[in-house]
Write a structure and sequence with these properties.
The complex is a heterodimer of chains A (239) and B (188). Chain A has 239 residues and is an alpha+beta fold. Chain A has two domains: 56 residues, no CATH class; 133 residues, Immunoglobulin-like. Chain A is built from eight helices and nine strands. The N and C termini of chain A lie far apart (69 Å). Chain B has nine helices and no strands. The chains are: A alpha+beta (239), B mainly alpha (188).
């Protein structure tokens, strides 16, 4: 008898796919499944079904904010590499222009805005009305993104975990043109997304300034920024 | 005053990545990097390794975005799947380098609940959710449910589970096989 259950029996195939997705297979078995998947649509389909069944379990795992180094590192790798398709085009724009190298804050702001416009082209998306990229003043490294899908609420989203000395806190400020001075939006924990209602303030306006400054653990004692600016950016309206 | 979670279009982001639009990857990173790092860290049991894995995952998401097929599954699911399999392949291929000592918290705590006893130190909060998988897992007996959940989130092999449970390997294999079969029946 040359009966090979894992090749002919749909139940055995599904069991193998289930174990692969669950993660219990050893290195050799995993490699064998991955190689076979590429040529076996039945196995691929069984794996896809198991991925869809089990993927909600990832949401049981507590999130772990990445260090502030991770995104710049990913960006450097992307800049150094070319995608497989484009590597062939020796004289394509991708290779001719070191376009992504040293991506400036302005460049990133523009691309985020363009991306938001692009995303809003989908009818399901309610586009952020304003976007702000907050960068470190010394090296222009982006640290936070602010999204405002309306003019009364904003979300401050970290791109990494900013380092804050234990006896200090980050305070979030905004100032629009014509205001006497910056208004505090509260303290911010490194690595955490923060939603801020702007109900007590005038609606967001283009070019409105946002910044994070280093203050004492309870924030600035005088209601105005006293410490050094850690991240700064201005609101850009999304058309 | 709380903000409703704004709708985030993962599929549009992957399509934009496939077109070479970097800002879409920034958006995915802003949205999911902490969750992906949580998943990778749970399997790799090491912060620096987990960041390496998430680094590789974002490179792969970028270069392989064009291969994402919405017919085969959700876009959000795809980025988690990419990350998780990178993590699993890493720990499987480096098993000896990664031998974790017996007193490692990460290794021992999660399996403490596998005998069905309450395990207050287990940082995985089992909460029946709205997803279909949760209802189906509820129907498994607690020890076997725990086996499936921890195999998935901690990336244990049959042998590791058997060792930690002090249960014969064949028994563990049979449990998992039957639990997967029951889940498939339940979920369709």
């Amino acid at each position: 008898m040359t009966f090979k259950p894992d090749q002919n029996d749909p139940n055995a195939l599904d069991a193998l796919a289930g174990e692969y997705v669950l993660g219990t297979l050893n290195a050799e078995q995993r490699q064998a499944v991955e190689q076979r998947m590429a040529q076996d649509p039945m196995l691929q389909a069984a794996v896809d079904r198991w991925e869809a069944r089990l993927v909600p379990l990832n949401d049981l795992v507590p999130p772990h904010p990445p260090s502030a180094r991770l995104w710049p590192r990913i960006e450097r790798s992307l800049n150094a590499a070319t995608s497989p398709d484009k590597a062939k085009e020796q004289h394509g724009w991708w290779n001719l222009l070191p376009l992504w190298r040293g991506l400036s804050a302005a460049g990133l702001a523009a691309t985020v805005v363009l991306g938001t416009v692009l995303l809003s082209a989908s009818p399901k998306v309610s586009p952020p009305a304003y976007v702000v990229v907050l960068v470190a003043p010394q090296n222009q490294a982006p640290g936070w993104v602010i999204q405002a899908s309306n003019r009364q609420n904003i979300q401050l989203i970290p791109l990494g975990v900013a380092h804050v000395p234990s006896d200090k806190a980050l305070e979030f400020w905004t100032k629009a043109e014509g205001w006497d001075g910056p208004v505090s939006l509260g303290l911010v924990k490194p690595g955490q997304t923060l939603s801020v209602p702007l109900d007590s303030l005038p609606p967001l306006e283009p070019n409105q300034l946002f910044e994070l400054t280093l203050e004492g653990p309870n924030g600035s004692p005088i209601g105005k920024p006293t410490g050094p600016i850690q991240f700064i950016g201005r609101a850009v309206k999304v058309i | 005053m709380t903000l409703p979670e704004p709708f985030f279009d993962y599929e549009a982001c992957l399509l934009a990545c496939a077109r070479g639009e970097r800002q879409a990857l920034v958006a995915l990173y802003a949205k999911e990097s902490a969750r992906l790092l949580g998943v990778a860290k749970r399997i790799a049991r090491d912060n620096a390794l987990a960041e390496d894995i998430v680094h590789d995952a974002f490179i792969k998401i970028w270069t392989r975005a064009a291969s994402f097929d919405p017919e085969r599954g959700s876009a959000r699911g795809w980025i988690f799947t990419v990350t998780r399999h990178l993590a699993l392949n890493f720990v499987r291929n480096n098993r000896h380098a990664l031998q974790v000592s017996e007193d490692s918290e990460m290794l021992l705590h999660p399996l403490a609940s596998l005998d069905g006893q309450a395990a207050p130190q287990d940082d995985l909060q089992w909460q029946p959710g709205t997803e279909r998988i949760h209802g189906c897992l509820e129907q498994l007996e607690p020890a076997r449910r725990s086996c499936i959940v921890h195999a998935y989130v901690d990336g244990y092999t049959h042998a590791e589970i058997a060792e930690k449970l002090a249960t014969p390997l064949g028994t563990v294999k049979a449990w998992i096989k039957r639990s997967l079969s029951a889940l498939r029946e339940c979920m369709g």
